Amino acid sequence: MSDHDPSAFEIDKARVREGFARAAPQYEDHAVVQREVQGRLLERLDLVRMQPARVIDLGCGIGESFDDLARRYRRARLTGVDFAPPMLQRARRRGRWLRRPWVICGDIEALPLADASQDLAISSAALQWCTSLDRALAEVRRILAPGGLWMFTTFGPDTLRELREAFATVDGGAQAHVNAFIDMHDIGDALVRAGFADPVMDQETLTLTYPDLTRLMRDLRGVGVRNALAGRGRGLTGPRRMVAVAEAYARQFGVEGRLPATWEVVYGHAWVPDAPPPRGPQGRTIPIQPVS
Predict the structure, then answer these.
(1) CA–CA separation, 180 and 4 (whole Å)
(2) Alpha helices, DSSP H only, in 182-287?
């Protein structure tokens, strides 16, 4: 992965799942960035001329995409996949009673879906929580039918850089308290390895400002964002350390009493060619089943 140490992206999946499960009840109150990014992703579907019969949201969370997708593709069978059951409990309430989306508890890296069973797959702000990007993209490629479209967002390396640098200032750079994110060009290369055609990548930077570090951390925890790196620092982030981090943050980045928080948003899409996907040793077919 470019100049990055691959071990920097090892994710503790159990910790990620726990964080999102805890966040489910208050997710909507804190998901300002996530909602904005998902909205921009869905707007990009305006440029795509297709009427898919089967549409899936991978990492659907509480199902905020379902209403938009149902309006766009009125005859499509909508499905959502997420690995945090409390998120799915909220997602399954979306839609009209006779046309509720199917929701499936599963992992993007091992999807419980049949080969070529979907026509359009979207995912917003979920890929950064995968242990193996190659494995995740291979699974997406496997479940998409020939001519299918994969459209997604994730976050790039500049995301939360201010918070990362503030922690590094206090800890001398010895501990990782903020997740690492994969570069856009590495994601593009991974799409090609997975057998996708015509990949397109671009990015933009969003900046939110907060009155203090406490408010920023509250929003991050409220959407389930926790430091999930397997090699994360194990030292306690107690009150004294957090005060020091807040002071470093304000000293280095504060502007007129506000603290900026950067989000590097990466957008990508790619198509499935007519040829079958590359098959790895773990390739398999599992019939799709709705959660009861």
Answers:
(1) 10
(2) 184-193, 213-222, 239-253
| pLDDT single digits (tens) 69-88 | 999 999 999 999 999 999 99
Q: Which residues pair with 203 in a beta bridge?
A: 266
Task: Please write the tens of the pLDDT for every residue from 245-259.
Answer: 999 999 999 999 999
β-strand 144-155 against 259-271: which pairing, if any?
antiparallel
| Domains located in the chain, CATH noted | 6-271 (3.40.50.150)
Asked whether residue 204 carries a pLDDT value surpassing 70, the answer given is yes
According to DSSP, residue 83 is labeled S
Dihedral pair phi/psi, residue 263, rounded to 5°: -125, 115
Per-residue burial over 171-182, b = 16 or more CB atoms within 10 Å of its CB, e = otherwise: beeebbbbbbbb
Q: How far apart are CA 189 and CA 187, in angstroms?
A: 5
Strand locations in the chain (E): 54-58, 77-82, 102-105, 118-124, 144-155, 197-210, 259-271
